[in-house]
Amino acid sequence: MTNKQALLNEIRLGDLLLKNRVVMAPLTRSRADNAENAPTDLIAEYYAQRASAGLIITEGSQISRRAVGYINTPGIHSQAQVEGWKKVTHGVHERGGKIFLQLWHVGRMSHPDFHNGELPLSASALNPNSQSYTPKGFKDTVAPKAMTRDEIKETIADYGRSAANAMAAGMDGVEIHASNGYLLHQFFSRTSNIRTDDYGGSIENRARILFEVIEEVKKHVAENRIGVRLNPSLHGVFGMTLDEETIPTFDFIVKRLNDYKLSYLHLSEPFTDVTEVPGAEPHIARRYRPMYKGTLMINSGFDQEKGNRVIKDGHADLVAFGKLFISNPDLVERFAQNAPINPWDDQTFYTPGPKGYTNYPLLG
Questions:
Q1: Number of folded domains in the chain?
Q2: Span 94-110, mean pLDDT?
Q3: Residue 266: which CATH number?
Q4: Which residues, including other chains, have CB under 8 Å from residue 122's CB and lie 6 or more apart?
Q5: Closest CA to 95 of 332, 363, 344
Q6: Does the residue 355 lie in any domain?
Q7: What positions carry a catalytic annotation?
């Protein structure tokens, strides 16, 4: 049956049938406040509350100890973390939901405080000149260590092991986080990658690591259960800036992704106003919808009206909502009833406990 709201129509992702096109975006919430950085009962409750989403994408989960860059974020590289995520998937599935785990490596956005004084890893030894939220509070970032070829290969293997762990935890699939100025994105950009080997220089070389990660993840997860997230016009955030090769690089990546039968491609509209920035693309969905032949998900700044419109206009198949899902666990039901939306409290996005996390009111 076709619903008058495009967001509420079913959609098939490979062999998965989603009950609607309202996706819960990956949202760092910093509630894994235990020595293992494992998901807790509170985290399981949070995701279960939001299981009416067509698809939940978890907060970024670090693929190794070297991948961490924020306090109290959950990982997917230890058995304790797998056991924690099992509680999450059980709660979501019990309520009829679908959930993918986002595989995350922050690269140079980390800090030596997370690594016993060792430098974080990145494509090149270029400081993003940003800040890292460490166990000792906000600290200025440092110049990272340029990864050796062995470290690149080991990190690619970490993506594969973590993908296997995600599936062992009962996830329906995984999303490869190649976005928002984190490790894989750091390889793509000339502002963060000045390598001279086969992971630097040309567009093809700078994009190489993503396709090697996909090939590794494919060994453990069916292609149609793998999503990829990109942010082509990220500018002035996390030390990333646009140049004349940025959009051609993402054009190359998106076209190459057509070689895979992925679950979806997850794109972000610009986080900042880039209309006057040379080399920027201010209309991401519009640009990449004709270029990408698979299922396209879009996010950043959408509300109910804009979400319905972008699908109806044919520029995307799914819409991911972030802050709206923080304050509205029953966002789908609110859309269906055109009900009022709870405002979010940004003071509690990253604080411990249930306040601003699991205590937002449901529809009466």
A1: 1
A2: 98
A3: 3.20.20.70
A4: 107, 108, 144, 145, 146, 147, 183, 186, 192
A5: 332
A6: no
A7: 182
